[in-house]
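In the previous lecture we treated proteins in isolation. Real proteins rarely work alone, and many bind small molecules. This record shows how such a complex is specified: first the sequence, then the SMILES for NAP.
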Amino acid sequence: MRDGGKRIALLGATGSIGRQALEVIAADPDLSVCALASGSKELDELAAEHGAEHVQVGGDVTELLDRAEPDLVLNAIVGFAGVGATLWSLERGVTLALANKESLVAAGDLALEAWKRGGGLLVPVDSEHSAAFQCLEGRAPETVDSLVLTASGGPFRNRSRADLESVSVEEALVHPTWSMGPKITIDSATLANKGLELIEAHFLFDLDYERIEVVVHPSSIVHALVRLRDGAALAHLGHPDMRVPISFALTYPERHATGVSGLDLSAGLTLEFEPPDTDRFPLLQLAREAGERGGTHPCAFNAANEVAVAAFMLGRIGFLDIAALVEDALAAVDGAPARDLTELVEADAEVRRLAAGRLAPAMTDLRRTRRAS
Ligand SMILES: NC(=O)c1ccc[n+]([C@@H]2O[C@H](COP(=O)([O-])OP(=O)(O)OC[C@H]3O[C@@H](n4cnc5c(N)ncnc54)[C@H](OP(=O)(O)O)[C@@H]3O)[C@@H](O)[C@H]2O)c1
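The predicted 3D structure, ligand included, written as tokens:
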């Protein structure tokens, strides 16, 4: 490991964010990796290459964090599996660079309480939230009117609902502007990702849902925009390249160079925006409702979506069945708040059981029944 500088625990090191983070860290002499974690892929080679002393494959990542005592945790695990690491960091006031939005969505109020107790920094890695964080930084809350999150619209932006019945996994895995891991790529195609981001923004920036708007912006150049009470709006622009928000989170508040080029406006730049279509992409609205209802409804939204996306990728259900399954699961839960991590894990597991049970009958039947009623 390099001497000096920030010692980073990189969780999800073998993934899309993890690999790009390793690139950023290797190019920055003030950053080093002290720990690496993955779900199942071996890490010995990466550990040797990047000088990481501690590694863990699967299991409870908080044990790795206890051993490594990092200055900063980059949580780039996918899904609810990242919740332990998020709470560990927030509780101890260890700086958290958060890519794993699912953990903040699911843990919600528990995460906020831990953050308040720990008193540390939480810097988002999601490009939209990194952008919003920068537009909101240092601003008095009463001067902020609303936040706009942009969505690329995904590969099916121009497909009819009838077309969406039969789109394949391969088609859903081709994102128009970002290259990402499979789960978030499917979430971008259904707009569940923007739904998760909406809830993430609510918790990160303490904004009511009615003050957070989502617009479709196909070129992914404007990452977020903040409207201020005097009628001004501040936007954050840049090429869609995750190395920028990753580096920002790892080097905050210093903002180091990344080698990523700035926008060339003289080459021409057209920015287009349109409202999202929640009829073809109902998961965005379902997320908003889950967020507004609070308690463990966001946790339920996330858990059902994880089960549905996994089933879609295995070819067990169709694209539109993802939203149908989530809607069905949300209707069946009471969403009572979780008082601690044990209760949260139980709420998550209950929805997974429920959603998995609904997968047994043919999902197309479920949707046919729903449409007929
Ligand atoms: N990719 C992007 O551009 C992007 C942008 C914004 C936000 N995000 C968010 O960042 C997170 C990661 O996304 P990604 O696209 O990088 O996903 P990914 O490519 O699928 O990578 C996921 C990583 O998580 C690891 N992992 C899975 N389960 C684990 C567990 N139980 N314990 C420890 N590690 C585990 C995987 O290890 P194995 O390889 O061993 O399975 C892999 O390293 C997600 O929450 C996503 O929403 C991603």
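Summary for your notes: The mean pLDDT is 95. The CA atoms of residues 110 and 340 lie 7 Å apart.
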